[in-house]
Amino acid sequence: MAPSTRARILDAALELVQQVGFTGTTVTAIEEKAGLSPGSGGFYRHFRSKEDVFRAAIERELERAQRYRREFERGAVDDPRAALSRRLLQQLDYMARIRPLINLLAREHGQFPDLTSRIGGILLDQGIVEEAGHLTRDLRPHVDHDDPHALLTVVVSALTGYHLARQFFGHPPAEVTPERFAATLAALVTSPTTGPAPCARCGHDEQAAAADPHGAE
Length: 217
Known about the structure:
The chain is mainly alpha-helical. It folds into two domains: 1-47, Arc Repressor Mutant, subunit A (Orthogonal Bundle); 61-192. The protein contains nine helices and no strands. The protein has helices spanning 5-24, 27-33, 50-69, 80-97, 99-108, 113-138, 148-169, 178-190, 206-211. Helix 1 packs across helix 3 (50-69), helix 4 (80-97) crosses helix 8 and helix 6 (113-138) packs across helix 7. The relative contact order is 0.09.
C-alpha cells in the first residue's frame, strides 16, 4: 500500500531535518521531497507549520521506538545467561532502528528541550526501569544485585558506547562482533560476585577489617 500524503510529508521532514537541520529545512523543500507541488497548499492541509510537522515526526518515531521495545524477549527463562545475551542483541538492534530519532535529538535538542526531556524520560529512564524489572523478576537468582537500576545504567552505557563506536568508525571496536560483545556482557552481569565487597571509603576488604581492625592501618 502506498504511503499516505501525511506519511510522505513526515518522511520528507524527518530526512531533511537530519540532513540540514530544522532551521535549514523549508516547507517548500518538504513539499518537493514528499512529491507535492510547491505552494499548492498540500502541506498545510495536514500540518499548521514546520514546527508542527517536526513534532509530529518525533512523536511518530517515539511510538515506533516503544513498539520495537515491546518486541523484546520477556518472561522467565531456563538459561539466564543465554537469554540475557539475546536480550542485549535485541537492544543493539533497537538502537540501530531508532537511529533517526537519536539523530534528530542530537541535532535539535537545544531548540526543543521539552521534546528532549520527554524522549529521554521514555527511552532512557523508563527503559532502565523496565530492564531492571526484567533482571530482578525473570533472571534471579542468576542476577542478584543490590542496585539493579545502577547495574542497568552500566549495561545501557556499555551498549551505547559499542553502538556509537560501530556507527562512528564503521566497524566494531577491535572487530568484536555484536554476538561476542553481548555474550561477554551477559557473562559479566550474570557472574556471581566473588569475595567480600570492598570498603567504599578506603577500598579494603570490609570483612577482613572487621576481623582485624588494626590490620589495615
